[in-house]
Each structure stands twice: as C-alpha cells, then as structure tokens.
Amino acid sequence: SNDQTLSYRKSWEHTVKEYSNLIRHIVTRPLHAVSNTLSLNEAEQLIRKLTRPIAETAKLIQENLQLAKQHKENVLKNPKLASQGLPQHDVEIRHLDNPRTVCTNDKCCQTIIVNNETKIEYKSKCHEICYLKGVVQETINDPRMLDCEVINYETG
Q1: Within 13 Å of residue 140, how many CA atoms lie on the same side as its CB?
Q2: What is the three-state SS of 46-72?
Q3: Residues 39-65: pLDDT tens digits?
Q4: Cβ(148)–Cβ(132) under 8 Å?
Q5: CB-based burial of residue 128 (10 Å sphere; 0-12 exposed, 13-18 middle, 19+ buried)?
Q6: What does pTM read for this prediction?
C-alpha cells in the first residue's frame, strides 16, 4: 500500500542520514595506531606468562621466611646451630630451547610428592617442539591446543 511505501521510504532516508552522520563522525576521529593494540596484546600475554613464576616466587619467599623463623627459634634454644647457617629452599630455573606441549592425560603424567607438596611429573613431552600460535604458556585446557598436530582430542 501507499502508506507502507511511505513508511519504508522514511525509514530508508533516516537510515541513510544516520549512516552519513556515523561516517562523518568516524572521519573526524584520530587514527588508531595498530602498534598500540599489538603492544597491549603483548603486555597481556606477558602478564599471563608471569603469573605462575610470580606466584611460585612469592611461595618460595614465604617458605624461606618460615624456615628463617624456625631457625631463629632453634638457635635461641641451641646457639651452636648458628654456625650451620640459615636453611633455605632454592629454585632451579631451566630455560627450554623451544616451547613444548605436555598434557595431563594419565598416560603422560603422574602426581608426586616433593617436600610435602603435590606436584605433577610429566612422563613424556607430547610435542617436543610446538610453535602453535595464540596459545599462552602454562595454560591448561586452552581450546587452541586441539589444533596441535600431536593432540588427539578423542583419545587424549
């Protein structure tokens, strides 16, 4: 009908006007430097990578503070212990030549107790050299891992 046609025309004209306003507004905005977005993405990935090392370092510091406190109490009871030095837990950092993929399938890992703490021991490296894009280190259950050529998502 004629009323419908008039309504569609008004709607179309309104849409064109708003679209034109949007385009005029967009062209007045300053350009966005893509490198800034890349820097933000890199910073986010770095923060994700640092989460575990920072947590483990904080835990190690707390353990060493507890050991120092206990040692102080022991030295107060027996001053001869002072010559033995301050006991502390150390950490060994091993840098890998390449990123690698390990999985938590029962065939590939087991839980072990180290210093009264449960740890995961990886019996195998599922993918010795894995450069899968977009996967953040130390991530568990990242869906992008399904794209890894050695991961069988049906059998684990």
Answers
A1: 4
A2: HHHHHHHHHHHHHHHHHHHHHHHHHHH
A3: 777 788 778 778 878 888 898 999 999
A4: yes
A5: middle
A6: 0.52
